[in-house]
Amino acid sequence: MFYNKIIKGAGIPNKFIDKTFKNYDSKPVYNDKVFDLTKKIKYLKEFANSNKSDFVFLAGNVGNGKTHLAIATAKILAYQKAKELNELKPWDTNLTRNSRDSFPYMFFMDWRSDIKKIRNSYNSNESGLDIIRKMELTEILIIDDMFARSKISSSDLDDAFDLINYRYQRGKKTIITSNETPDDFLMQLQPKDLRDYQYRPLEPKKLDLVTERLASRILEACGGVILEFDVPNYRFKKVCI
User: Fold this and answer.
1) What angle in degrees, to the nearest 10, is found between the helix axes of 154-170 and 204-221?
2) For the chain, domain boundaries
3) pLDDT reported for residue 113
């Protein structure tokens, strides 16, 4: 009962709602080459079943199943919490249910679309403010395609740091997918790479400080481990008949 409620309230896109480790191909074959991902899957399962780290970061090519694995990992965490709730006494269960009504236990954030709503929240947009609160307070946060925009802005970096720092300080489970590793992407950013550079010039030293603080927190919260996927884009895999 509680598991279904957690999943339903997470806002997972319909396309990914049924994703689990069982229906993920751990040894995909492309052009007769086998890509063995079993070690990465083992690590994700260990992450979900222990407190070895607070964050996990999946980086790599577009279309290789990172979102699938992120959701599969989050589902194990959700199942464990649901099991705890199911074992509570009736009066404790009611209290827990009421306390969770204001925000979901697990929340799926699509970086590209949700960051726009957050931008609008600066104009007192309730939808954006609600998303920010959910991202901060949820116990399990999935950030999908972090920084997946043609160009990011200095405001994007500020919002990312505020969110990551909030969850980093409180030890909240956070699962991040991205096309780039945080150290490679963030540490190589230059002021000219920012979308608002012409309008809000940012000194290189200030940018270096922001990106270093953000990258270092992510890496520390991940226990220094980044899962990199070099599997080709499965969406381009064709079957000719």
Assistant:
1) 30
2) 2-182+215-236
3) 84
Residue 124: the pLDDT is: 57
Which structure tokens are listed for 102?
A: 């204001």
Token readout for 127 is 């939808």
d(CA 205, CA 147): 21
Closest CA to 222 of 107, 156, 143, 150: 143
CA distance linking residue 182 with residue 188, whole number of Å: 10
Pairwise CA distance, residues 54 & 168, whole Å: 8
Classify domain 2-182+215-236 at the CATH class level. alpha beta
| Residues of the chain above pLDDT 90, percent | 46
Is there a contact between 76 and 49 (Cβ–Cβ < 8 Å)? yes
Alpha carbon of 48 to those of 72, 121, 179, 219, 227: distances in Å?
10, 32, 22, 18, 14
Predicted TM-score of the model (pTM):
0.88
d(CA 32, CA 207): 44
Which two three-digit tokens encode residue 63? 């279309």
| CA atoms in the 13 A half-sphere facing the CB of 43 | 17
Segment 94-149, tens digit of pLDDT: 433 434 446 789 999 998 888 777 776 666 555 667 778 888 999 999 999 998 76
Phi, psi (deg, nearest 5) at residue 161 = -65, -45
Structure tokens at 30: 């492309």
